[in-house]
Design goal:
By secondary structure, this protein is of the alpha/beta class. The protein is 28% helix and 25% strand. Strand 12, helix 8 and strand 13 form a beta-alpha-beta unit. The chain starts with a strand and ends with a strand. The chain binds NADP nicotinamide-adenine-dinucleotide phosphate (NAP). NADP nicotinamide-adenine-dinucleotide phosphate binds next to helix 1, helix 3, helix 4 and strand 9.
Length: 340
C-alpha cells in the first residue's frame, strides 16, 4: 500500500510517497480502503506555514478528511462491517460531549491521516456516509462541514428567522451557508469578488458584502439587519476580522471562533476585549466537532439532500498538484484527491 508522508513546514518538496506492508486491524479497529480525501486550511498550515495549534508528529500521513469503504475489521468490532461506506472523524477518540485534551488526537496530526490507500482507524473513528453522496462528496465533510455544524448548532440556539454571518467562501463558510439555509435562517456572506458573490447568492445567501470594496463591512452588515446586528457569526478570519465580526453581532449574539485565514501567526487584536464587552457578545471557540455531531449533521444532510460544493478533483498520483492548486487558485468549494 502507498501513503504520502509530510513533516511540519517542509513544503511540497518534503512530501514523499512511501510503500508499506498492508495494515492489519487489531481489536476494535477497522481498515478503510480510502477512496477520496479533501484538503482544508489545516493542511496548508501544516505543510507550508509550519504552524499548527495541535501536535503534528514527524513523517505523518497528512490530511484529516477522507472517505472510503471498510475492507477488514478486527476482533470485537460491532459498529461497522466489511463493505460499509464510511468517513473518518477528525478526532477519532472524541465521541460526544465537550472537547477535551484527552481526546485531541487527530487524523493528519498526532494520528496518521487519509492521504493513503488504506487507513487503520478505531471503530468509533468512522461514521456511515449519507447514501446520496459519492466518496468524493463525503470526503469533504469531516473537518469543514462538522466545524460549520458545531459553530451553528453547538452553542446559542439557532432559530428560524435568525441572521447568520459567514466570512469568505472557504470550505467552512460554504457549509455554514448551506446548513444555515436548512434551518430557515437569513444568511449574510462576505467575499472578495463579485464573481464569488454571485455564486454565494446562487447557494442561498440573502445578501453579500464585498470585504475588499467595503473595508468597513461590519457597518454594512449591521445596516442589512436594520441596525440590530446578526445573531451568529462563523468567524474564520482571525486577527484581521474578529473586531468587525463582533461589531456586526447583536447584543448577546454569538461569534463562533473557528479560524484565522487572515494571518495565522498574528497576535490577537487589542480591540477584541473592548469590542466584546461593549457589544455584550459571546465568543465561543470551536474545535471541529465530535462523532455525535458528525452523525447529527449527516442526518440533516440526508434529509435535506444537501450536496457539498466541490471545486476540483485530482487523482491520488497528483496530490502535490492538488495542494498547489488549493494554495494558489482561490477555489470555490473543496479540493478533492480521488482514488475512485
Ligand atoms: N477551529 C476548528 O476546529 C477549525 C476547523 C476547520 C477550519 N478551521 C479554520 O477555519 C479557517 C477556514 O478554514 P477553511 O478550511 O474553510 O479554509 P479555506 O477553505 O481555505 O478558506 C479560504 C477562504 O478564506 C476567505 N478569506 C480570506 N481572507 C478573508 C477575509 N479577510 N475576510 C473574509 N474571508 C476571507 C477567502 O474567501 P473569499 O475568496 O470568498 O474572499 C478564501 O476563499 C482556517 O483558519 C482554518 O484553519 C478551524
Amino acid at each position: 500500500m502507498k501513503s504520502y508522508h509530510v513533516n511540519i513546514g517542509a513544503g511540497l518538496d518534503g512530501m514523499v510517497m512511501k510503500e508499506h506492508d498492508m495494515l492489519v486491524p487489531g481489536p476494535r479497529e477497522v481498515l478503510v480502503r480510502v477512496r477520496a480525501c479533501s484538503l482544508s486550511f489545516r493542511e496548508l498550515m501544516i505543510l507550508f506555514l509550519g504552524f499548527y495549534p495541535l501536535p503534528v508528529r514527524p513523517d505523518v500521513i497528512p490530511v484529516s478528511d477522507g472517505a472510503g469503504e471498510v475492507v477488514a475489521v478486527g476482533l470485537g468490532v460491532t459498529r461497522v462491517k466489511v463493505g460499509d461506506r464510511v468517513a473518518g472523524t477528525v478526532f477519532p477518540y472524541w465521541l460526544d460531549g465537550p472537547y477535551t485534551r484527552d481526546t485531541a488526537a487527530q487524523l493528519g496530526g498526532s494520528h496518521d491521516g487519509m492521504l493513503t490507500e488504506y487507513a487503520l482507524l478505531p471503530e468509533e473513528g468512522v461514521v456511515p456516509i449519507p447514501e446520496h453522496l459519492s466518496f468524493e462528496e463525503s470526503a469533504a465533510l469531516p473537518c469543514a462541514a462538522v466545524t460549520a455544524w458545531n459553530a451553528l448548532t453547538g452553542g446559542l440556539p439557532l432559530l428560524a428567522g435568525d441572521t447568520v454571518l459567514t466570512l469568505g467562501s472557504g470550505g467552512v463558510s460554504l457549509f455554514a451557508l448551506q446548513f444555515a439555509k436548512c434551518f430557515g435562517t437569513r444568511v449574510i456572506a462576505t467575499t472578495s469578488s463579485e464573481k464569488k458573490a454571485e455564486r454565494l447568492k446562487m447557494l442561498g445567501a440573502d445578501a453579500v458584502v464585498n470585504y475588499r470594496t467595503t473595508p468597513d463591512w461590519s457597518v454594512a452588515v449591521r445596516e442589512l439587519t436594520g441596525g440590530r446586528g446578526v445573531d451568529h457569526v462563523i468567524e474564520v478570519g482571525g486577527p484581521s476580522t474578529i473586531v468587525q465580526s463582533i461589531k456586526a453581532t447583536r447584543v448577546l449574539g454569538e461569534v463562533a471562533l473557528v479560524g484565522l485565514v487572515t494571518d495565522p501567526k498574528a497576535s490577537p487584536d487589542t480591540g477584541v476585549h473592548r469590542a466584546t464587552t461593549a457589544g455584550l457578545v459571546t465568543l465561543r471557540s470551536i474545535a471541529v466537532g465530535s462523532r455525535a455531531q458528525f452523525l447529527a449533521m449527516n442526518r440533516a444532510i440526508a434529509v435535506n439532500g444537501l450536496k457539498p460544493i466541490i471545486d476540483r478533483v485530482f487523482p491520488f498520483e497528483e496530490a502535490k498538484a492538488a495542494y498547489q492548486y488549493y494554495q494558489e487558485a482561490q477555489p470555490f468549494g473543496k479540493v478533492i484527491i480521488s482514488q475512485s
